[in-house]
Amino acid sequence: MQMNLDFHGRHVFVFGGTTGINFGIAQAFARQGAAVTVASRKQENVDNACRTLSDVGGPVHGACADVRDFDAVGRAFESAVGRFGPVDVLVSGAAGNFLCAARDMSSNGFRAVVDIDLVGTFHVLRQAHAHLRKPGAAVINITAPQSFVPMRYQVHACAAKAGVDQLTRVLALEWGGEGIRVNSISPGPIEGTEGFRKLMAPTPEDHAAARGHVPLQRFGSLDDISNLALFLASPYASYISGALIPCDGGGAIESVKPALEAASQAGL
Ligand code: COA
Ligand code: NAP
To answer: How far does residue 113's CA lie from ligand 1's centre (Å)?
Structure first.
């Protein structure tokens, strides 16, 4: 069930917004009448996303850019702002991840994820700043429970997302005076997404156990996340900034326990 908030006349830019959770967010804003820009690396994903978004709602713009390429990110904002004007809502959610023990991870593997998640988020926010509506813009970073729950085989993503959380806090401090709010959403396991397929337990038994670790006893949906994004971007959230908001059925507080057990088993 989607929240009903009006975003007609607003420009919403979703970086990494062509698939999965972020695309769910882009669709939610399109349904509420926003002019939506989506950007990511693969032209095919950009084209598919734009086609679907056009069917769903108002005007749509697509841009192809790798968040690791600072200049390409800047060009994506220039083309979008040329089309729809200043950005009212920026969602930054491009990310990559894979499971690998730290002792086996190559330097390039570690760097790939840190470059996409952390440096990429900085590139997006840094290039966006000149194009954000002032006052009034809302920035939403998509973080993850890995930012504060240590998870085995994800040393790269844990380090990167912890950095993303500090970007959120520091920029909320620096940009608050310009009337820009900066917040983060931390999704729990969201069914039907790439992150879920890559990182969650592979067998049905493991799956059930993972669901059992969520206090609300279910995995999340795309609507769960996009409703929070709609709220955070709306006037109802006008006094919320610098917040890291879990949307995870309570999973992050519960997963402190398995993380502690894992550390204890490893003799830490
Ligand atoms: N295990 C170990 N190392 C891996 C790996 C895996 N499963 N997948 C990639 N790597 C390593 C590569 O071997 C390479 O290191 P090397 O040069 O020392 O061999 C390094 O990571 C970069 O890999 P490459 O495929 O060149 O990176 P890329 O920039 O094309 O892709 C990834 C980035 C690896 C993060 C890729 O998974 C991706 O694009 N992910 C986006 C989708 C996604 O993960 N969604 C979920 C979001 S939570
Ligand atoms: P996804 O579908 O793979 O989404 C990642 C998006 O980022 C894609 O649109 C991808 O498109 C884009 N992207 C990846 N690398 C990029 C790069 N270098 N430059 C520009 N765009 C890039 O994964 P998802 O599972 O929905 O995850 C979305 C976000 O939610 C991520 O930030 C993730 O950390 C977070 N999250 C997910 C879960 C979950 O359960 N799925 C849980 C917690 C947090 P291209 O391939 O076209 O570039």
So the answer is: 7
Q: What is the pLDDT of residue 256?
A: 58
Indicate yes or no: pTM above 0.90. yes
| CA of residue 112 to ligand 2 center, whole Å | 13
**Alpha helices (runs of H) in 115-217, residue ranges in sequence order:** 120-128, 155-175, 194-199, 204-212
Contacts of 56 (CB under 8 A, 6+ apart): 27, 30, 31
d(CA 10, CA 267): 53
Pick the ligand that lies closest to the CA of residue 67.
2
CA distance 10 to 87: 8
Query: Which strands, in side-by-side order, build the sheet including 11-15?
Result: 60-64, 35-40, 11-15, 89-92, 138-142, 181-187, 244-247
Per-10-residue mean pLDDT of the chain, 268 residues long, equals 90 98 98 98 98 94 98 98 98 97 98 99 99 98 96 96 98 98 98 91 80 94 98 98 98 69 52
Which domains are seen in the chain, by residue range? 11-265 (3.40.50.720)
CA of 108 to the centre of ligand 1 (A): 9
The one-letter amino acid code at 171 reads L
38 alpha carbon, closest ligand: 2
265 in contact with ligand 1, CB cutoff 6 A: no
- For atom 35 of ligand 1, the residue with the nearest CA is 96
Ligand 2 pocket check for 58: Cβ under 6 Å: no
